[in-house]
Design goal:
The protein has 275 residues and is an alpha/beta fold. It has helices spanning 23-33, 52-57, 69-74, 108-119, 136-143, 153-161, 200-212, 218-229, 233-245, 260-273; strands at residues 4-5, 11-12, 19-20, 40-44, 61-66, 85-88, 101-105, 129-135, 162-170, 175-176, 183-190.
């Protein structure tokens, strides 16, 4: 495969990758994953293998997904990686093997689909924990608290059944080529759901719908997304009117002011009264 050259004569990654090159950071990343021998681990995007060799050395049962065939074919040639299972394809759409831990240095363009699958409460074999390098902006959204500008669809879904921790901010110089923005390491650990609702799929759709119109008041956002949720707009309007008459504040608030319990209560009201 021929790599395009940048103006300085170096090779340009054809898929927009930014390869980790800081070995000490790679050591900290893998140590923080706290893997044990035999644990089933999936790495997305091994690239040049700086994490792959360290992951294999833990004794974990490692599988990787790599979209770049040149790198995929090179994984078994890496030190200690002859038994690593390699899957070639796009991790955003490829079927994932059944594993307990996900590790990845995620490009921005696939962070959304990958995180969507990590947070998905409907999968038959959920991932217990994920250790990820993502753009700092994405990490801030994952860890955001209600009432902040970063609280939104991603943070509300993460809060449902995960503990999220941002461990370390990474400067651009840790990668080759350096990205234009900083990155961060985040840990996501699956836990028991923080709220219970009558219809979890409705809650997931409600979160998507409300935060699609995050700058509007919740009542307007809810009316706009009600057809997609399968609830009757007239019944939604009655629910809003009743809440106003009872002095409930949520219709006048923006979605970013609604915490997960408030979203769960609204979801149950929709399930009971608006179908």
């Amino acid at each position: 495969m021929t790599r395009r050259r940048r103006r300085d004569g170096s090779r340009r990654p054809p898929l927009g990758q930014h390869f980790l090159r800081d070995r000490k950071l790679a050591d900290r990343f893998v140590a923080g994953a706290a893997l044990v021998p035999g644990e089933r681990v999936l790495e997305i995007g091994p690239g040049r293998g700086i994490l792959t060799t360290r992951l294999a050395a833990t004794g974990a049962h490692l599988e990787v997904i790599e979209i770049d065939r040149e790198f995929a074919y090179g994984v078994p040639l890496l030190e200690g990686c002859s038994k690593v299972a390699v899957h070639i394809g796009d991790a955003a759409i490829l079927h994932w093997p059944r594993v307990e831990v996900l590790v990845a240095n995620l490009p921005f363009q696939v962070s959304g689909p990958v995180l969507g699958r990590v947070l998905d409460p409907f999968v038959s074999h959920p991932i217990g924990r994920a250790v990820l390098m993502v753009q700092l902006e994405v990490a801030s959204r994952l860890c955001a608290k209600v009432g902040t500008r970063d609280w939104g669809r991603l943070s509300a879904k993460a809060a449902y059944a995960h503990d999220v921790e941002r461990l370390e901010v990474i400067p651009p110089g840790a990668f080759d080529p350096p990205p234009k923005v900083r990155s961060a390491i985040v840990h996501l650990r699956r836990r028991a759901p923080r709220v219970e609702v009558e219809d979890l799929r409705l809650l997931w759709g409600l979160i998507d719908g409300l935060f699609q119109h995050r700058r509007k008041q919740a009542r307007n956002s809810l009316l706009l997304c009600s057809p997609a949720l399968g609830v009757r707009p007239a019944a939604v309007q009655s629910l809003i009117d009743h809440a106003g008459a009872e002095g409930e504040p949520w219709p006048r608030l923006r979605p970013e002011a609604l915490d997960l319990p408030a979203l769960a209560r609204l979801c149950d009201s929709l399930a009971r009264d608006c179908r």
